[in-house]
UniProtKB/TrEMBL annotation:
Keywords: Signal
Lineage, opening ranks: Eukaryota, Fungi, Fungi incertae sedis, Mucoromycota, Mortierellomycotina
Source superkingdom: Eukaryota
Signal peptide feature range: 1-19
Protein name (Swiss-Prot/TrEMBL): Carboxypeptidase regulatory-like domain-containing protein
Amino acid sequence: MRHYISLSILLFASAVALAGTEVPGWGGPIANDKGIEALGWLAGIGSQPDNYLLLFAAASPARPTATKEVVTSDGYVNLVRNGRSIGVASQFTVRAYTDSIPAASTGSATTPANGTASVDIAVGSLDAAPNYISNPTGGVQLSPVAVHLEACTARALASPGKPVQLVTGCTGRSNYISSRGVKVADIPATADNMVVRIPEDTTEPPIAFVFVNERITTDIHGNPTTDENGRYKFDPTATSGYVNIARIASIDDSFDVLTLGHAAVVRDPAMTDK
């Protein structure tokens, strides 16, 4: 029996936030004889592996924190951590499959596809922050650091004989990063691995870094691919990887990391390409 690395996030807050080029890894071995795994979630937050909360997560194979292959909501949903809000989302779907792929852009129907692992996420709108503070006037939220996202998708697809496919993007009319009620940066529809320091003024100490449309290749154990110096490097031949529509890495006493629209797959070609 071969053991693969579960797609359960490890925390990395200080290294990620301060270096800006570091990326998170994975941890938690599980038994898996097929060499494929899929995990996705709408939102996740925490500062340590053992306290990382997943909200609206889907997985294949199932796990205690993600027991279903499909999680969906047609209306507005409050995202809550320990009784405190981290945001509001509407019209979202998270789908995670192995040995099959979605038969259509919506719904739970699938088409058989041996050796594949896929996660598809669609979000109508998402307002989120590690410490969410809504604006009573209805304007930009008052959180110290936050994102507003509309019409977003994320996809990770691992197929036999092919490199992993990683796709993210938000095509709505208003996508931005904000701080204390002020828009800091617009998020272009074509943004790819965008990084924004909060505050942007480098004469002031940072409180967070925001990463948008992260597309990270990994090895078959979920560890980010690296160069000869051990720094992350995108590998166009990788069979595994993950995406985040957005990630907020806080630099404060909490060191919380908030991930939004996370889709991750692993595939071992030695097991799937026989």
